[in-house]
Each structure stands twice: as structure tokens, then as C-alpha cells.
Design goal:
With 300 residues, the chain is an alpha/beta fold. The protein has 8 helices and 12 strands. Bound molecules: iron/sulfur cluster. The site of iron/sulfur cluster has 13 residues, from helix 7 and helix 8.
Length: 300
């Protein structure tokens, strides 16, 4: 593991309850970091010696504005670049958004990503909050980006004409598995998902940390917990082959995860993450430390 990025999920709570949310965030979701936890995490990231970037996300980090400001201040004092991901709910007008963002510029935030898509705003809104926040960031000279997730749709595969594939950027894990896995979307046999599409499990570069101490690259697949071990120990002793979930994923993707534990999932799935998430839901009680927290699996 060569960790360069630490992503602090300041809270699982959010103003929204999006269909595609990987971590099942919602207005009532528990799991908010304390000031002490944030300070400790930044301190441990500094001690590790390889981290260069700290991201603040959630849930919705602007809901915990004083906590977020403190996190930026501490992370900047430790010499980290700081980025924030937000749904921009606070951007009532461009002028108001400037007031929200100004203190962040003064503390040295490097970049802010605004979620700008149909999941986060009313499609009839001519200037959605993310657009207002983006303009405000630009006026303040903060590097701004947008994250746009298109709803799933059916497209043709240019490499295999005639074979339909799923368009859009939704990955079928988290809440999307229950809310967006439409029966009309094309599926493939469970035996064809032999690779994890998104994670480099051997050389992990970034981890998410939540309020329960869970550290995970992909949401809900934990490599350690800060309440039990230090970040340094977790990074030094990480052994992907020996991990009960990551081992099989490395050897043969979600298909191998199903095979390794002989799970009754021999059907058709939308993508690798869909099969992986269904398999992990079935393994969660058997490996509660590796597959946590329960709320990421839709368990209240
Ligand atoms: S295959 Fe599994 S571990 Fe890999 S990105 Fe998808 S959900 Fe995460």
C-alpha cells in the first residue's frame, strides 16, 4: 500500500437520498466524525509520511460547516492539499455561495467538486445549485470541477455490434442495486465478472475513513479500523492475499468471490459491482470487520 490520499467522510448524513449513492446517505443517516477524530486522522496521515492529499466528503460535508473548516485548517497546517466534494445544496444564489466558499479559499482549499446532475437537482431548474456554486468558486479563484452521473440507459457496444451495454456512469453498488437495477437493462452471467473494474488492490493509493474508524478503498470493503490499529500499522501489515474479500477479488474478481464461498448467486448481473455487492451482502455477517459498516449495506 502506498497511500497518498485520505478521504474523510465527515458524515454519512446528507440533504439528499440519491438513488445511486454508494454509502446509502440520507438526511437521517448516523455516523458523523467528531473534531477529535478529524484531528487524529490528519495527525496519523502526517505520521505516515506518504499522504499528500486530504479530501473532505460524505454524505454532505457542508452540513457540518465548523467541522469542515477545522478539517481544512488542520490539513493545510499539516501541509496537505485539500479537496472537497459537495452536492452544493447551500448555493441559494451565486452571491450567497461566495459567502460560503470565501472562508475555504482563505484557508487554502485547493479544489472543490460539485455534484451537477439530475440526481442532485430539479431538471427544470435553469441554474441548479451546483452551477451557482461552480460560478462562485470560479469568481473566488478556487479550482472547481463537476461530477455528473447519468442515469443508466441501454446503448450498443461499438466493439461488439448487436450486444447491448449499460450507458451512464452509475456503478451498481450501494443503494443503486435496489433502486436502479431495472429489469430492462442488459445482464451478463455471473461467471463473466472476473475482474474488479475500479480498484488496484495491491497498490492502494487512497482510502476513505468514516466516523466508525473504518478504512476502505471501495465503499464497505475494509482494510482496517483506526479504532483498533494505527494507520501506520494498517498500511505496514496490509496483505491483500490474506484478506477474506480482497484475496478472492484479486484472484478472479467478483466471480471468484462467489466461487470461493460457494454463494447461491449463479444468475445474471448488471456489472461486476452488482455481483460483488450482492456477494458481500451475503458475506457481511460472516466477516463483519472486513465488510463494514452495516449501513453501507443498507442495514439501519
Ligand atoms: S468489483 Fe467490488 S470491490 Fe471492485 S469496485 Fe466493484 S464493488 Fe468495489
Amino acid at each position: 500500500m502506498h497511500l497518498t490520499g485520505l478521504h474523510l467522510l465527515l458524515s454519512y448524513a446528507c440533504t439528499n437520498q440519491c438513488d445511486h449513492c454508494f454509502v446509502h446517505s440520507s438526511p437521517g443517516a448516523p455516523g458523523t466524525m467528531t473534531f477529535a477524530q478529524v484531528r487524529d486522522a490528519i495527525h496519523q496521515a502526517k505520521e505516515l509520511g506518504t499522504v499528500t492529499q486530504v479530501y473532505l466528503e460524505g454524505g454532505e460535508p457542508f452540513l457540518f460547516y465548523p467541522l469542515m473548516l477545522m478539517a481544512v485548517k488542520e490539513a493545510r497546517a499539516a501541509g496537505f492539499e485539500v479537496g472537497i466534494v459537495t452536492n452544493s445544496y447551500f448555493a441559494t444564489t451565486v452571491e450567497d455561495a461566495i459567502e460560503w466558499l470565501k472562508p475555504l479559499r482563505e484557508l487554502g482549499v485547493g479544489s472543490i467538486s460539485f455534484s451537477d446532475d439530475a440526481y442532485h437537482s430539479d431538471k427544470n431548474d435553469e441554474q441548479p445549485p451546483a452551477r451557482r456554486a461552480y460560478l462562485a468558486a470560479q469568481q473566488l479563484g478556487i479550482e472547481a470541477g463537476t461530477i455528473c452521473i447519468e442515469p443508466p440507459s441501454i446503448k450498443t457496444d461499438e466493439h461488439h455490434p448487436g450486444e447491448p451495454i449499460i450507458g451512464g456512469d452509475v456503478r451498481f453498488r450501494g443503494r443503486a442495486v435496489d433502486t436502479l437495477s431495472d429489469d430492462s437493462l442488459p445482464r451478463r452471467s455471473w461467471s463473466t465478472f472476473c475482474e474488479c473494474p475500479d480498484e488496484d488492490w495491491v497498490d492502494i493509493g487512497r482510502l476513505h475513513l468514516d466516523a466508525y474508524g473504518n478504512l476502505y478503498p471501495c465503499q464497505g470493503v475494509c482494510v482496517g479500523n483506526l479504532n483498533r490499529q494505527s494507520l501506520k500499522e494498517i498500511a505496514a501489515t496490509y496483505d491483500p492475499e490474506q484478506h477474506p474479500i480482497i484475496g478472492p477479488l484479486l484472484r478472479g474478481g467478483p466471480t471468484e468471490l462467489v466461487r470461493a464461498y460457494d454463494l447461491p448467486l449463479n444468475g445474471a448481473f448488471l456489472d461486476a459491482c452488482h455481483l460483488c455487492y450482492r456477494a458481500r451482502q451475503q458475506l457481511r455477517e460472516r466477516f463483519p470487520e472486513a465488510l463494514a459498516p452495516p449501513q453501507v449495506y443498507g442495514i439501519e
